[in-house]
């Protein structure tokens, strides 16, 4: 594996979460051998951690947690505390802000993002503005970002969150997660019952602040 291949893999590496994941072992080893790649990985990890910290510091109205969980018949897999509710609410707020930036840019200007971002996306196989087909697991993005929750054990919770309007996404086999935006309407109603299941979608890749989104999504296979 050369540094270019390692960098493409490490674009989706999450420090402290993916350390023991075997799919990153060879790429991490290459980063240890390559000073330039190691420096890039350090900056990438710092940006990821900065985003997580900002997510946790977003001020949330006292009644927002109650609005989010109102009517939920399903308990969280972990004890439900005010801090946990605030973290989920912060994740929703962050995703909402990111989505707003995406939509604003799409309305104002359909051009690709900067050449730097395009080159970075190309290295990872996800160039901004490219149309891709992704097969993967349907995610409740709020719980996934805040607590790294996904998979069959989280299916009931994810289904309820998606039905209640929380952001929906997809996690590809390579570990990359995308926020999903429909062409003309939200995809929540159509995808809620597929939470934690594998589907195939097609959309246009967009990227902002380390987050990926598929815009103008069509459902190819459910």
Summary of the model, kept short:
This protein is an alpha+beta fold.
In round numbers, the mean pLDDT is: 77
Spans of at least 5 consecutive residues whose pLDDT stays below 50 are 73-81, 101-124
* Proportion of residues in extended strands: 15-25%
Q: So what's the overall shape?
A: globular
Integer-rounded radius of gyration:
18 Å
Q: How many DSSP E strands?
A: 5
Largest sheet: 5 strands, mixed, barrel
- Give the end-to-end Cα distance, rounded to a whole number of Å: 35 Å
* Percentage of residues assigned to helices: 40-55%
The computed structural class is: alpha+beta
- How do the helices and strands follow one another from N- to C-terminus? HHHHHHEHHEEHEE
Widest sheet: strand order?
1-2-3-5-4
The count of helical stretches stands at 9
Give me the secondary-structure topology.
Blueprint: H1 3-10, H2 25-33, H3 35-57, H4 64-69, H5 82-108, H6 115-123, E1 131-140, H7 141-147, H8 155-163, E2 168-171, E3 177-182, H9 188-191, E4 198-208, E5 211-221
Parallel strand pairs: 3-5
Antiparallel strand pairs: 1-2, 1-4, 2-3, 4-5
Describe the model.
The protein has helices at 3-10, 25-33, 35-57, 64-69, 82-108, 115-123, 141-147, 155-163, 188-191; strands spanning 131-140, 168-171, 177-182, 198-208, 211-221. The protein is α+β, with helices and mostly antiparallel strands. Helix 2 (25-33) packs across helix 3 (35-57) and helix 5 (82-108) packs across helix 7. The N and C termini lie far apart (35 Å). Residues 73-81 and 101-124 have low confidence and may be disordered.
């Amino acid at each position: 594996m050369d540094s270019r291949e390692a960098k493409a893999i490490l674009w989706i590496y999450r420090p402290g979460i993916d350390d023991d994941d075997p799919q990153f072992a060879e790429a991490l080893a290459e980063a240890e051998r390559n000073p330039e790649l190691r420096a890039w990985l350090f900056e990438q990890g710092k940006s990821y951690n900065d985003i997580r910290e900002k997510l946790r510091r977003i001020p949330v109205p006292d009644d927002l947690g109650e609005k989010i969980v109102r009517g939920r018949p399903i308990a969280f897999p972990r004890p439900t505390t005010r801090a946990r509710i605030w973290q989920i609410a912060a994740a929703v707020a962050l995703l909402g802000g990111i989505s707003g930036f995406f939509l604003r840019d799409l309305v104002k200007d359909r051009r690709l993002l900067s050449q730097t971002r395009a080159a970075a996306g190309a290295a990872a196989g996800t160039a901004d503005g490219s149309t891709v087909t992704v097969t993967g697991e349907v995610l409740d993005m709020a719980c996934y970002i805040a607590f790294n929750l996904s998979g069959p054990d989280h299916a009931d919770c994810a289904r309820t969150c998606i039905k209640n309007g929380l952001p929906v996404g997809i996690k590809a086999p390579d570990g990359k997660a995308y926020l999903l935006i429909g062409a003309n309407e939200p995809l929540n109603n159509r995808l809620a019952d597929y939470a934690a299941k594998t589907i195939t979608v097609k959309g246009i890749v967009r990227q902002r602040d380390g987050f990926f989104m598929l815009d103008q999504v069509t459902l190819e296979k459910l």
